[in-house]
Structure formats: C-alpha cells, structure tokens
Amino acid sequence: MIEELLPESVVAVEAHGDERPGGTTPYPELYPEEQALISRAVEKRRREFTVVRGCARHAMEKLGVPPQAVLPGERGAPQWPAGLIGSMTHCEGYAAAALARATDLASIGIDAEPHLPLPDNVLASVALPDEDRRLRGLAERHPGVHWDRLLFSAKESVYKAWFPLTGKWLDFSEADIDVFMDSGHATSGGLRARLLVPGPVVDGRRIGHFDGRWTVRRGLVATAVTVPHAQAAQD
C-alpha cells in the first residue's frame, strides 16, 4: 500500500495484522540497544516497535545494506545507516518502513492511520481555516473518505520529511495542505503542502512546498511525502 505512493527509488516494506514484515518469519529479534528502550513497555508497544523495525531491516537488506539497529534520535526521529534516508509508521494492525539511498532523494515521510474520523476537537487544532473549508467541500462531494483523518496523516508525513532536513519542529499551522483526487478515483490522489515558514535548503535551493500521495485501503489511510534533490526537482 505504501509502496504505490512512492517513487521507484524507494524500497517500502509493510506488515498487515499478523503478517510478517516482507514475508519474513519469524518476527525479527531486537538488538540489545533497541530492547533496552522498551524493556518496560506494554506488549502492544513492544510488538509495534519490533514489527516496524523488522520492516526497516528488510528494506535495508533490499538496498544491500546489512540490517542494523534503528534507534530514535532527536525528537524520536529514526537514525538510519550512513547513506540511507527513510521513515517508519505504525498503527493498529499495520506497520511500514520506507528507505532510499540519500543520493536518490533528500527526504521521505510516511504515515498510516485508521480510516476513522478524528476524535472530537482534534481537527480544530490541526486544520487551518482554508484547509477546513476545502475539507468540508471534499466531504460534501465524497463522504466515503474521512478527510479530517487524511489531513492529519498528511501533516504527519510532511513533518517526518521536514525534520531530517531542518532539525526543527514544524507546527500543524505552519503547512497549508491541499488534497486532490486522482481522476475517476475517490480513494487515491495527491497532496501539496505549502510551507508557511522558510523551507529547508536542499542542494543550495530553498524548498517552498512538499508534494506527496495518499490512498485509502483496507481500513487505513496512508500518506507519503518525498523531497527530491534540487536537480531532480528542476528536471
């Protein structure tokens, strides 16, 4: 599901429910330094932590990189092996990791959420007035999609792509996201996030917006954002 939202240069591995990451069996063992991070966590947290790292290690193998520990760095952002960039996500019954070589892309952000309405009062803290207006229009025309949850997921993906490039927090109010549908499809499409603060500098060029894709499938909404290198963006 995530893979279809990303360019060919990205390797994505996912696990649904009781599936093993990328078809591996059994679930991967944690490295000691990872185990130490969740030694007191509840079983649900331990399982999610383990499965998503299994996805990440399987993606490393596909890229020809020896599997290794994935530890959280500043603000919890995953620390990837030298030469790789990536992103991870997990929610109830789903986990995924997307990795690429740093020479192919500048940054990646992925997110998956249950395809359900956001809890009461959450949208007010997430959506800008223009976003809220656009969402209401989409909901009137296509009520089968929980657009509020899609916006939340998109903002999560934007932040995950933003932080490795800047090392700074990005508030929900600092990116204005426009969501659009593929022609003839109400369950997939694209998105553009207009940055309302100075964007990151990539290869000497300041980025003013991020682009991405979204889909609704199997009871989930998934979003992905990729930031190309400056030359690729110009091409």
Notes on the protein architecture:
This protein has 235 residues and is of the alpha+beta class. It is 29% helix and 30% strand. The protein contains six helices and twelve strands. The protein has helices spanning 32-37, 43-62, 122-126, 129-141, 147-166, 230-234; strands at residues 11-16, 71-72, 78-79, 84-91, 94-101, 107-114, 175-181, 188-195, 201-202, 205-206, 209-217, 220-227. A five-stranded antiparallel sheet has the order 6-12-11-8-7. The protein has a three-stranded antiparallel sheet with strand order 1-5-4, covered by helices on one side. The radius of gyration is 17 Å and the shape is globular. The mean pLDDT is 91.
Gyration radius from CA atoms, angstroms: 17 Å
| Biggest pleated sheet | 5 strands, antiparallel
Judged by helices, strands and strand pairing, the structural class is: alpha+beta
- Helical coverage, percent range: 25-40%
N-to-C span: 27 Å
* Morphology call: globular
Please report the number of helical segments.
6
List SSEs in N-to-C order: EHHEEEEEHHHEEEEEEH
Strand percentage: 25-35%
Tell me the number of strands.
12
Low-confidence stretches: none
Mean pLDDT: 91
Q: Strand arrangement, largest sheet?
A: 6-12-11-8-7
Question: How are the elements arranged and paired?
Answer:
Elements: E1 11-16, H1 32-37, H2 43-62, E2 71-72, E3 78-79, E4 84-91, E5 94-101, E6 107-114, H3 122-126, H4 129-141, H5 147-166, E7 175-181, E8 188-195, E9 201-202, E10 205-206, E11 209-217, E12 220-227, H6 230-234
Antiparallel strand pairs: 1-5, 2-3, 4-5, 6-12, 7-8, 8-11, 9-10, 11-12
